[in-house]
Design goal:
Shape: elongated
Strand content: under 5%
Structural class: mainly alpha
Number of strands: 0
Order of helices and strands: HHHH
Largest sheet: none
Length: 76
């Protein structure tokens, strides 16, 4: 089961590399990660982005970037 999970994870990483697109959240990556480290919820971070950076994003997109995209970047 672990092997299948790792293969799927590798496929997702390859797929995201192929897209070669950046997210609108990438510009605020380190600020977002710091806020998350301080325990702010995805909802509060989303509200902060809207109010302070004029950037509207969904909670699910924010969670996906933090838990999958940026996490995979740090594991490479």
């Amino acid at each position: 089961m672990n092997i299948i999970h790792q293969e799927l994870k590798n496929d997702l990483v390859r797929f995201s590399i192929k897209k070669n697109r950046t997210s609108k959240l990438d510009s605020f990556k380190y600020e977002i990660l710091i806020l998350r480290q301080y325990g702010l919820s995805y909802q509060k971070i989303s509200n902060w982005l809207l109010n302070k950076k004029s950037l509207k994003t969904s909670i699910s997109n924010l969670a996906y970037m933090i838990n999958h995209v940026w996490e995979n970047e740090s594991n490479d």
